[in-house]
Design brief:
Elements: H1 3-10, H2 38-41, E1 42-45, E2 53-56, H3 59-66, H4 81-88, H5 105-113, H6 119-132, H7 136-149, E3 154-156, E4 162-164, H8 165-179, E5 185-188, E6 191-195, E7 206-210, E8 213-216, E9 234-238, E10 243-248, E11 253-257, E12 260-261, E13 264-268, H9 301-305, E14 307-308, H10 325-332, E15 336-339, H11 347-357, E16 360-365, H12 387-404, E17 410-415, H13 441-458, E18 465-470, H14 475-481, E19 487-491, H15 502-509, E20 514-519, H16 530-549, E21 560-565, H17 581-586, H18 588-599, E22 612-613, E23 620-621, E24 629-630, E25 640-643, H19 645-653
């Protein structure tokens, strides 16, 4: 089996469960060194270049230092009594791909530590099993072993895009050391740059590697003082009104409003009533909630009349008065919301939310995504070389700016939403995105630039213009063809450790500030309790926000402007009517057992079926569970709210900005 096929199979076998329950366990041989002294057992060659490699000169000594399961130690695990017990009792039967994202951490560790697999991949899942079992010190050792020995390892994600294991291992080590300062470890000087990595073709990749060092550290060593950028020279200013984007002479970026630093603490807000669906023609997700007044009290329902079901009994008790989402979000610390499309919005409501709660908005146009605004046929898709499609989209962009340019709540303009992922579907299938940007990247980003120039010619305040990209795919092509874009927006879902190389890559390739235009995590895991799942979501999102903070102006990369959390409340219509055909084909047995579930999907049910592989709680995204609040049992939609732990985690993290 090839490495690429093996990685891909991960996402099709994700639900196969190894025997056993979640538990901590002890290693028979944890190694003789907590921080392995690699210089003692080998030599580093061409560090910081494309020719980097680590040459082992004392394999036995390195094995003893590393401990069982960590390269190059291939023997001590075979003597571990617990491993032999698991093996002889049949607890390690089946493919090693079945031993991922289960709570049988000890079995997962044993299975992967002896798996016949690409060594970088093998070591990654060995490390992940150790991490999930709470053996953090050993997990750090395992992840760092990837950085030293296999920094160029790669596989494929669910979507068939490259997964750079060395880069993720670096981020894991840094994250775990920061989250667990009691370990007394800190990663310094490490860097993995993958040149030509933005095109999905791994054949042309060039890895420039410096594994850095893990050094002893105290808790105080992680309290890195921020640089006071206000004392630096501003070399570039975008904006002629209240909103300005500043670039300092150290290449850091900062957004300001009325002369004060503005951290985008944003959220995607589409609190639509359960039972409606755009797939059935009964819902406009960006518009309908803005006019809903079901109880006919002349107030918009969700923003003003939602109530919190504190005891989760799905009843509005006497001590649970209507409070409204706007008040809840204001209390949480939200200051920004993202509008994916500008057509048909309730401008009076937007004005009220700004005047009464201080909310500002990212106002966007899809520029042809889902065939919106281009006049394209869905199955052919928006064509960025078609003069008629281009004309139609520019007319729409012009309408956006002319209608909203004088509104004080506009923070910036946002073009697109993951258009770079989109390719046309096939007639008779529900696939595709009504857009051809993925197969026309140069033409797409040239159009993005044309739209940006049009916006700047129309907006007297010259507010920043952003593109909402799908992660960093085609980042280099965007940089070459869209010089008039001010902010690189990325919808990024990379894991609880945050966004990894996004900051460094954008700074290196594009020289722009970064706004995470979407990040989030499903609050569902099929093998966990509701409480465990919601706590897992909270931990994940905490790690995401802390990574954003760690890259604000004056910190690390210095180019983070903030992020848009996806999303406020669960949307019950979002589960697909079926799994993609490739999943059915690759995992027929899995699909056969669950096909009946997919036939029962309805927009009025809170479905618990996965849509696609993602680095969430169990390796899948449950699109109907991304909210940090829920709608309870749905019977009191759109009014009922149950606040998940993530709500309170953000409230705590964002308190310092009030």
């Amino acid at each position: 089996m090839t490495k690429k096929l093996s990685i891909l199979l991960l996402y099709f076998l994700i639900f196969a469960s190894a025997a056993g329950a979640a538990e901590l366990f002890k290693l028979d041989d944890p190694g003789s060194e907590d921080i392995v002294n690699y210089e003692k057992y080998g030599r580093f060659v061409d560090t910081g270049t494309a020719g980097y490699k680590y040459v082992i000169t004392d394999a036995d000594g390195l094995s003893r230092a590393a401990g069982e399961g960590i390269f190059p130690n291939a023997t001590s695990l075979l003597k571990d009594p617990e491993f032999l017990n698991f093996k002889n009792s049949g607890k390690l039967k089946g493919s090693h791909w079945q031993y991922i994202n289960t709570d049988a951490f000890q079995a997962n560790f044993y299975k992967w530590a002896v798996a016949s697999e690409d060594p970088g991949t093998k070591l990654y899942y060995t490390a992940e099993a150790l991490e999930k079992a709470g053996l953090i010190k050993q997990a750090v050792k395992a992840y760092y072993a990837i950085l030293v020995n296999f920094p160029k390892a790669h596989g494929l994600t669910y979507w068939g895009t490259p997964w750079y294991i060395g880069s993720v291992a670096l981020d894991k080590v840094d994250y775990l050391c920061r989250q667990n300062p009691g370990l007394g470890m800190k990663l310094t000087g490490a860097s993995v740059i993958v040149e030509k990595s933005f095109d999905n073709d791994t054949k042309n990749d060039v890895f420039i590697v410096n594994p850095g060092r893990i050094v002893s550290a105290t808790k105080e060593d992680f309290a890195e003082p921020a640089l006071d950028v206000s004392k630096l020279n501003v070399i570039k200013t975008v904006g002629a009104g209240r909103v300005k984007l500043l670039e300092y002479n150290n290449a850091n970026w900062q957004l300001t409003v009325d002369g004060k630093p503005y951290v985008v603490r944003g959220i995607a807000y589409m609190p639509n009533r359960v039972g409606l669906s755009p797939d059935h023609g009964t819902l406009n997700v960006h518009k309908d909630w803005m006019y809903s007044d079901i109880n006919k009290n002349r107030k918009i329902d969700s923003p003003y009349d939602s109530w919190v079901d504190n005891n989760r009994n799905d009843r509005q008790d006497k001590d649970e008065p209507a409070v409204g989402d706007y008040k809840l979000m204001k209390d949480m610390g939200v200051n920004t919301m993202r509008l994916y499309d500008h057509v048909g919005l309730n401008k009076q409501l937007l004005k009220e939310s700004y005047e009464n709660f201080g909310f500002m908005y990212l106002v966007g146009d899809p520029i042809g995504m889902y065939a919106i605004g281009s006049g394209a046929d869905w199955y052919y898709g928006t064509d960025y070389t078609n003069p008629e499609h281009i004309k139609n989209m520019l007319v729409r962009v012009r309408q956006m700016v002319e209608e909203y340019k004088d509104e004080p709540y506009v923070l910036m303009w946002v073009l697109g939403n993951e258009n770079n992922y989109a390719e046309p579907g096939k007639a008779g299938e529900s696939s595709g995105s009504g857009c051809r940007a993925k197969i026309q990247p140069e033409a797409y980003y040239k159009f993005v630039n044309e739209a940006a120039k049009l916006i700047k010619s129309l907006d007297p305040q010259q507010r920043p213009v952003a593109v909402a990209n799908g992660d960093t795919l085609f980042l280099d092509i965007c940089a070459q063809n869209a010089p008039d874009i001010d902010v690189f927006g990325a919808n990024a879902y990379r894991g609880e450790q945050g966004f990894g190389s996004v900051w460094r890559d954008v700074a290196r390739v594009y020289g722009r500030p970064v706004l995470i235009t979407e990040y989030g995590c499903s609050a569902y895991h099929p093998d966990w309790t509701l409480e465990q799942s919601e706590q897992g979501q909270a931990r994940y999102l905490q790690g995401n926000w802390e990574d954003i903070e760690n890259n604000f102006a004056g910190h690390r990369a210095g180019n983070a402007l903030g992020g848009i959390l996806f999303e406020w409340v669960d949307e019950w219509w979002k589960a697909n009517s079926d799994l993609p055909p490739k999943i059915q084909q690759q995992n027929k047995e899995w699909y056969a057992k669950r096909s009946k579930m997919y036939k029962k999907l309805k927009p009025y049910k809170h479905d618990i079926v996965p849509q696609f592989g993602a680095p969430f709680l169990d390796g899948w995204s449950y699109e109907e569970w991304l909210g940090i609040t829920t709608q309870g049992n749905g019977k009191h939609s759109p009014f009922e709210r149950q606040l998940r732990p993530a709500y309170f985690e953000f409230k705590k993290m964002w308190e310092k900005y009030k």
